[in-house]
Write a structure and sequence with these properties.
Strand order of the largest sheet: 1-2-3-4-5-7-6
Shape: globular
Number of helices: 8
Largest sheet: 7 strands, mixed
Strand content: 25-35%
Structural class: alpha+beta
Length: 285
């Protein structure tokens, strides 16, 4: 690993943290791990007796060389991220910040800190999963960070007993972040990955869209480029109309999951809520 590249990553991470008004640091002590678990509980609100992870296990991860970092503001831990060593490099398993920190670029600061941590140790790739129906997360991961989807995982975790995931099947999109790739380097410099949809030759089709009543409408899959829409606020829809939210889950699984299973490449996600799939490229993974 080039010292210059690692130093650049550390500088970008430091700048992102300052702009977000937070500090990030590795955690080691058992009491720190207990506080990290309390942060995660505030974010996910699991049912009593079913913790997302235990302080003891977090301490083992940290002690064995994995990534366990706390996010602090004004002396208080407001976020936490865990990543463990994996075949691909580092797998970022869970990250969360308090609701008070939403919309302040804290998540961006966390990912750049994780990137700098990995590069300093010669790790050049990070993977993680996210719910492909949550539009803001899709935009953050694919555009703001420039990570690349590699696999659609249907009901990956099974039924989960927390307020965020309860009542919905846990489909996930696995993404692969090449830390020295052009998209990651541009992201660290503050330049999101923008995907352009060129329909000059009429080879772009809509594979999934929304009906006037808000339900999913399957379309065509035979274009060079396929656009796949998701709802702007699926979390609100899960509260107000769970059956309709499930319709979107199954429709996205069939269309996006099906295209990825056939080897087609998701090249990005637009600001207005469309996955862009290039059927002329093979999936990277």
């Amino acid at each position: 690993m080039s010292g210059t590249r690692a130093d650049e990553a550390a500088a970008a991470a430091g700048l992102a943290a300052r702009r977000a008004g937070v500090t990030l640091s590795e955690l080691h002590g058992l009491e720190e791990m207990r506080e990290a678990c309390r942060v995660l509980d505030r974010v996910w609100r699991p049912v009593p007796g079913n913790p997302l992870i235990t302080p003891e296990l977090l301490r083992v991860f940290a002690h064995s060389g994995s990534y366990a970092a706390g996010v602090h503001r004004d002396g208080r831990m407001i976020g936490f991220c865990l990543g463990f060593l994996a075949t691909a490099g580092l797998h970022s398993h869970i990250a969360g910040v308090d609701d008070t920190a939403r919309g302040r670029n804290v998540g961006f600061a966390v990912k750049l800190h994780q990137r700098a941590w990995a590069l300093a140790r010669g790790i050049t790739a990070i993977t993680w999963t996210f719910d492909p129906l949550i539009s803001r997360n899709a935009y953050f991961n694919l555009s703001k960070l420039g990570a690349a989807p590699s696999e659609y995982l249907a009901d990956f975790y099974g039924a989960m007993q927390d307020e965020v995931n309860a009542g919905t099947e846990t489909d996930r999109l696995m993404v692969h972040w090449e830390l020295e790739g052009a998209h990651a380097m541009a992201a660290a410099a503050g330049a999101p990955h923008r995907v352009a949809v060129d329909d000059a030759r009429g080879h772009t089709v809509v594979g999934l869209d929304a009906k006037p009543d808000g339900g999913p409408a399957a379309g065509r899959l035979d274009g060079d480029t396929v656009l796949v829409r998701i709802p702007a606020e699926i979390e609100a829809l899960r509260r107000t109309d769970p059956p309709l939210a499930r319709e979107w889950r199954y429709a996205l699984r069939e269309v996006l999951g099906g295209l990825m299973a056939q080897g087609h490449t998701v090249t990005g996600f637009t600001r207005d809520g469309w996955y862009v799939i290039d059927r002329s490229q093979e999936k990277q993974g």
